[in-house]
Design a protein that fits this description.
It is a single chain. The chain is globular and about 60 Å long. The strands form eight sheets. Strands 5-4-3-30 form a four-stranded antiparallel β-sheet, with no helix packed on it. Strands 6-7-8-9 form a four-stranded antiparallel β-sheet, with no helix packed on it. It has two helices and 30 strands. The chain is about 10% helix and about 45% strand. β19 and β20 form a beta hairpin. The longest helix has 29 residues.
């Protein structure tokens, strides 16, 4: 077979050249192989140099340095990352958008926040909303044209528990135990006040009832008994109240001026009367007056005792005040609470405060405030102990 003809495009006057003379071609392949070998050798040297730690001596006795990208800090994935030292998870009740809806945002100690929708039907959910002492059960008072409905339960078992109530509270030390009051009108014998209780947020039963001139609403409930608040009149343009304390069977133990703000399982009750705060103890003569709390406007929105019962936090128009009941010291924090909802962490160090949008976490050890969770409308907040209550 004749050798193939290769066309040279270098010019029109060059004659055709046959490929039988292979010396020039072999020379080209030899140079190509040499270049490839040198390239691989240089790449190997560069790889060894890059893997040597900075400061190791090179071949020439010098030092070799490498430049590396700094690792990116991971985004906070748990509330313990956002608020160092916070020991619990966090549940936050929010009303998203403009519609009638509720969602619970759960932010665990480790892990991303997650939302769970709560079925509320067509009810107006603008009323009072509270978590229980465990932070895992929720109750909401919902107004209808005929009565106030009480809905309660875990987010996935939320439903109507009672109707026609005028107030409700969770037990101050037992999870999932709910109580409420109803007023049954009777023109002949007088209105009747009924006190109902329920286990595990189920339909309850009447504990006791009272007929007469004192018709109030439930303000607190614990192993010590019930505290019911009644309106007594007007003083300097503001309503005045009295708190009547009952034992668990319905017998009256005491009456105190003012309305009850908070209670503790040890029997301590926080009362407010015309802008003044004091703590009384069920079954004893203990009375602790509180001075130094910044109560601008004489309006107390809510309060909560610390887990050990030795401190109490109060929300008002001015912010949040923390009172040490042992030595009387007070620390004031200028943040605007969006609702009366406030809760202590399980170790008694932090306070979670519901803002108009989001949540503030106050470190009571140093006064530092962490503002977290820029939410639409915050209704209630609760620390959720990891190991349960």
């Amino acid at each position: 077979m004749p050798d193939a003809i290769e066309v040279d495009l270098s010019g029109p006057d060059q004659p055709p050249r046959r490929s039988g003379d292979r010396r020039a071609l072999e020379s080209k392949w030899a140079w190509f192989g040499l270049g490839l070998g040198l390239g691989l050798a240089v790449a190997a040297l560069l790889s060894i140099s890059a893997s040597r730690p900075p400061g190791d001596e090179g071949v020439a006795g010098g030092t070799t340095t490498t430049t590396t990208m700094a690792p990116r800090e991971p985004a906070p994935i748990g509330i313990s990352e956002e608020v160092p030292g916070f020991p619990d998870g966090l549940n936050v009740l929010v009303s998203p958008g403009e519609g009638r809806a509720l969602e619970v945002l759960t932010w665990p100690l480790i892990g991303e926040p997650a939302y769970r929708s709560i079925p509320v039907g067509d009810l107006d959910i603008a009323g009072t909303a509270r978590f229980d002492v465990s932070g895992q059960f929720l109750a909401v008072a919902s107004a209808t044209p005929d009565a106030v409905m009480l809905q309660a339960g875990r987010p996935n078992t939320f439903g109507i528990v009672a109707s026609g109530i005028n107030a409700f509270v969770w037990h101050d030390s037992e999870p999932a135990d709910l109580a409420w009051t109803r007023v049954v009108e009777n023109a002949t014998f007088g209105d009747q006040l009924q006190v109902w209780v329920s286990d595990d947020a189920q339909p309850g039963e009447i504990v006791f009832s009272e007929t007469g001139s004192f018709v109030g609403q439930l303000g607190a409930w614990g192993d010590w008994g019930f505290a019911i608040v009644g309106r007594t009149g007007i003083s300097e343009g503001s309503p005045t109240f009295v708190t009547r304390v009952y034992d668990p069977t319905g017998d009256v133990l005491a009456e105190h001026e003012g309305w009850i703000v908070a209670s503790h399982g040890n029997g301590r009750l926080l009362l407010e009367h015309t802008g003044e705060l004091r703590v009384v103890h069920v079954g004893s003569d203990e009375v602790i007056g509180i001075t130094g709390a910044d109560l601008t406007g004489d309006v107390v929105a809510g309060g909560e005792f610390s887990p050990d019962g030795n401190r109490v936090a109060v929300t008002s128009f001015a912010g949040v005040s923390v009172v040490n009941l042992d030595d009387g010291s007070v620390s004031n924090h200028s943040i605007r609470a969006g609702s009366p909802s406030i809760d202590w962490s399980s170790d008694g160090r932090f306070l979670a405060v519901s803002l108009f949008r989001g949540v503030a976490i106050i470190d009571t050890n140093n006064g530092e405030i962490h503002t977290i969770l820029d939410l639409q409308t915050t209704r209630a907040v609760s620390a959720v102990p990891i190991g349960g209550v």
